[in-house]
Design goal:
- This protein is of the alpha/beta class and 214 residues long.
- It has seven helices and ten strands.
- The chain has helices at 3-13, 46-63, 76-88, 129-140, 157-165, 176-185, 191-202, and strands spanning 17-19, 25-26, 32-33, 35-37, 69-73, 92-95, 108-109, 117-125, 144-153, 170-175.
- It has a six-stranded mixed sheet, sandwiched between helices. Strands 1-4 form a two-stranded antiparallel sheet.
- Helix 1 packs across helix 6 and helix 2 crosses helix 3 (76-88).
- The chain starts with a helix and ends in a 12-residue tail after the last helix.
C-alpha cells in the first residue's frame, strides 16, 4: 500500500484527523473548519506511531540523504524528531517558539554547529507560519536547512506560497486530499462531503461550503 494512503488510514483510525463537515470546528483565528487534526494522538497508538516515525525516516532518507541533524518544532514536533532521529542514528534538538528568559536564553536546544545540514520535523502544516519561523531561526544560527518533513499538510495556498517564498521544501507523509478520499471510501464521510472539504481547503475564509448541498 502506498505510504500516503497508509498514513491517512492510520490517522483516521485513531481520529488524529477528525472530520465534522456538518458541525464545523472553530479555529483560534475564528475560521470555521470541517476538520480537526491532533497528531499528538499518534504518540499514544504504538503501531500508528511506528508507521509515522518509520515513514518520516523514509522521507528523510529519500529526499534529504545528507541530513546530519534533525530539529523538531516546539512542541508538537519534538517527540517525532526524537524518535525519528533515534531510528536513523542522528542527533536531534528542537527550536523554541521564543528564547528562554533564563539560563543561556537559548532558542535552539541541542548542539548545532554552523554549516550542519538540518531537516526540520513538524507534525502539521496549515498556513506554514510557525515552521517557517523555525527555519529562519536555524538559518540565522548558521544551519544549512535542507528542508522539512511533516506528518500531515492541508496543502493550503497560503502555506504553499509561504514555503516557496522562504525557499524551503516540505515533504509530508500524507495530505488533506488523500485523507478526505480515504475517509469517503471507508464510509467515514459521504462522497459529496469531499467536494465541500476541498472547497474549504482551497479558501478557508469562504464559508459557503458549510451550506453547500450534501
Amino acid at each position: 500500500m502506498e505510504l500516503k494512503q497508509k498514513i491517512a488510514e492510520d490517522l483516521l483510525s485513531i481520529q488524529a484527523v477528525f472530520f465534522r463537515p456538518d458541525e464545523p470546528f472553530t479555529w483560534a483565528s475564528g475560521i470555521k473548519s470541517p476538520v480537526y487534526c491532533d497528531n499528538r494522538l499518534t504518540l499514544t497508538a504504538p503501531q500508528v506511531r511506528n508507521d509515522v516515525e518509520e515513514g518520516l525516516a523514509e522521507l528523510i532518507r529519500t529526499y534529504y540523504p545528507e541530513a546530519e541533524v534533525l530539529m523538531g518544532t516546539s512542541t508538537a514536533g519534538i517527540a517525532h524528531a526524537a524518535i525519528t532521529a533515534h531510528l536513523m542514528g542522528l542527533p536531534m534538538g528542537y527550536v523554541r517558539s521564543g528564547s528562554k528568559d533564563h539560563g543561556r536564553k537559548n532558542q535552539i536546544e541541542g548542539k548545532l554547529e554552523k554549516g550542519q545540514k538540518v531537516v526540520v520535523v513538524e507534525d502539521l502544516i496549515s498556513t506554514g507560519g510557525s515552521v517557517i519561523e523555525v527555519v529562519k531561526v536555524l538559518r540565522e544560527a548558521g544551519a544549512d536547512v535542507l528542508g522539512i518533513v511533516s506528518i500531515f499538510t492541508y496543502g493550503m495556498k497560503k502555506g504553499l506560497q509561504r514555503l516557496e517564498e522562504a525557499d524551503v521544501t516540505n515533504h509530508s507523509l500524507t495530505d488533506f486530499d488523500c485523507v478526505a478520499e480515504v475517509a469517503a471510501k471507508t464510509g467515514y464521510i459521504k462522497e459529496s462531503d469531499v467536494r465541500r472539504l476541498i472547497a474549504f481547503r482551497n479558501n478557508p475564509s469562504d464559508e459557503s461550503w458549510i451550506g453547500a448541498n450534501q
